[in-house]
Structure formats: structure tokens, C-alpha cells
Specification:
Helix content: 10-25%
Distance between the termini: 38 Å
Number of strands: 19
Structural class: alpha+beta
Largest sheet: 9 strands, antiparallel
């Protein structure tokens, strides 16, 4: 599927599905890309990639990634790397496509501010969730506004501290992973409820009667890899909300897309041969996000509705 710079969207929007206060609109297209990309979770599971500090001293904002496979490696923005192989847990700043059999530097941020320790094992894994949606929105906005295309590290720490307090989660190292561990059992049934169709390539997610985010992938295969993580991430923002029947309709998704279409945009070309594709980033008072393309094909399109945006009020409880 291709999304051009004028945002001529060519996918269909399904009617909403709701479980508790999580609302999902599946996006489908018959123009799926025959990609041969390797998803980061699968690569780590099958030992086809290695991740570590850039050197023995380490640097908070970068990690080294080795793609050992003959496939291009897709690393999604907001994936959380955890484990004692790293000096601290990190979250990926922005979706990145890495060339076959190559080494590259991955831009990341710290999501465990009270730990900076020597590697004590080879233990490293991906969290079962992505970074929660409010933090994803902030990061997209930071990258758009920063001359260095960097995430504001202090803003990341602050929003994690707020979320720890909101969930009354104890964490000696202020780790975002500890929030998810506390809520893991609560979200299992929600994740299992939402199953994509064969032509689905993306989702728009909402909480109650408020849209939150949009993610579109190159293929149905990639959506199936990342949908559970997307559901878990938005669930972390939903526990303090009362369960109500949603009043969201497909017309609200169309309004969301129009806000993106009319937002301010900037195009960035990749400057290295190991990291592939071009970015179209967008930002405005109501929305923020980006599109990663490779050879005119959309690899990952993510968009976020900012929290202070006006949305319909809840009206009646779910029966």
C-alpha cells in the first residue's frame, strides 16, 4: 500500500469493535505489499539480530543493532528493550528499516531512569507492549520539532513517572516495564478479543469515545505481529477510564485522517546505507506522527491525536 505526500489514503475503514473501553477500527486494503521484511520480535526470538550498547562505556541515546539475516529488519518505534545486557532499558525513538547483513546505530531513549549498571548477563528481550500512547504521541511531536530529530529524554522520564503514580506501580528503577507487569493479566482477554481479517493492514485505536492512535503497516503479516503490542500499549492509558459504550463512528476516523492530511509536514531523506527509507513527518496542534516509506511503498504509518483535543463526552454505560 502506498500513502503519498498528499495523504491520498487507499484503505477501507471497518465498523468499530469494542472490548471494555478499548475501541478498534480495522483498516483493510487489497493492495498489500509483498514484503520480505523481518519483524524485530521474530528476529530476536530466532537469534537473527543482536542488540547491545554502542561500546563498553555506553551512551543513553544509542544502541548498536546487528542484522544477521538476509532480510531487511523492521524495528518499530516505541518497542521496549529490556534486560541486564543493557545498562538500562530503552525504548526505540522511531520506526527504522535496517539493511540485510548490516550494523547500524539505533536511536533510543531511556525508560528506566534510575539504573545505569554494567552488563551482568546476556539477557535481553522485547517487552510484550509498546510504549503507552501518551508517550508515543509526545515522542512523535519531539522528533518533528527537534533540529536533531531527537526525543526529549526528560519528557519521557516525566510521563513515565506520571504513569507509575497513576497505576500505583512500585519501581525502584522507574521502569515503564513495571507498569505493564502489574497490568499484564488485566489486558490478556482484551488482546485475544481483537483479531484482524486477512486483508487488514492497520488499526485506529480509541478509548471510550476518544480516538487515540493510528498504525498502518506494509502487510497483514506485520499487523498480526504488532497488533497485540499496540492493544497492550493503549490499554495502559485506559484503566482509569470508566467502561462506557463508545459513540465513535467511522466518520470520526475520517475526521482524524483529515486532520493529518492538513497538518504541517516535513520530508527527511535517510543519510546512511544501513538504515533505509525516507520519513514524512507531520505535526499540528491536534495531531502528530510520521510515515516511513521505502521505494515509494509505505512501511509504517503512525499517527496520534493529542490528549487535549476536543472529543465527544461519554454518555451511557455498556450493558
Amino acid at each position: 500500500m502506498n500513502i503519498d505526500q498528499k495523504f491520498n489514503f487507499n484503505f477501507d475503514i471497518a465498523e468499530p469493535k469494542q472490548k471494555n473501553n478499548i475501541v478498534v477500527f480495522f483498516l483493510s486494503s487489497k493492495e498489500q505489499m509483498e514484503d520480505n521484511f523481518l519483524a524485530f520480535p521474530d528476529a530476536l526470538k530466532n537469534n537473527l539480530t543482536e542488540v547491545g550498547e554502542v561500546n563498553e562505556k555506553g551512551f543513553v541515546k544509542n544502541l548498536k543493532v546487528i542484522n544477521k539475516s538476509a532480510q531487511k529488519l523492521l524495528i518499530l518505534g516505541s518497542e521496549i528493550l529490556v534486560g541486564n545486557k543493557l545498562k538500562q532499558n530503552r525504548v526505540v525513538d522511531e520506526t527504522t528499516l535496517i539493511a540485510e547483513n548490516s550494523i547500524t546505530t539505533l536511536r533510543v531513549s531511556c525508560c528506566e531512569k534510575n539504573r545505569w549498571s554494567p552488563a551482568v548477563s546476556e539477557n535481553i528481550s522485547l517487552s510484550e507492549t509498546l510504549l503507552f500512547s501518551k508517550a508515543r504521541t509526545n515522542n512523535a511531536e519531539d522528533i518533528y520539532n527537534s533540529k536533531q530529530k531527537r526525543v526529549d529524554q526528560f519528557r519521557v522520564w516525566n510521563v513515565i513517572d506520571e504513569k507509575l503514580e497513576e497505576h500505583e506501580a512500585k519501581s525502584f528503577t522507574s521502569s515503564v516495564e513495571d507498569i505493564y507487569k502489574k497490568r499484564r493479566s488485566n489486558v490478556k482477554e482484551i488482546v485475544q478479543f481483537f483479531q484482524p481479517g486477512d486483508n487488514d493492514i492497520g488499526v485506529v485505536l480509541g478509548i471510550g469515545s476518544r480516538l487515540v492512535s493510528l498504525d498502518v503497516f506494509s502487510s497483514n503479516k506485520m499487523l498480526k505481529v504488532y497488533l497485540p503490542r499496540l492493544i497492550r500499549s493503549v490499554s495502559l492509558d485506559s484503566f482509569k477510564r470508566t467502561n462506557f459504550k463508545t459513540f465513535l463512528k467511522t466518520k470520526d476516523v475520517h475526521k482524524f485522517l483529515r486532520l493529518i492530511e492538513h497538518s504541517n509536514k516535513r520530508v527527511y531523506k535517510k543519510s546512511t546505507t544501513e538504515s533505509l527509507g525516507d520519513y514524512l513527518r507531520f505535526n499540528d496542534t491536534l495531531v502528530s506522527g510520521s510515515v516511513l516509506t521505502y521505494k515509494t511503498q509505505t512501511i509504517h504509518f503512525s499517527g496520534f491525536l493529542k490528549e487535549f483535543s476536543t472529543t465527544p463526552e461519554y454518555k451511557s454505560k455498556v450493558a
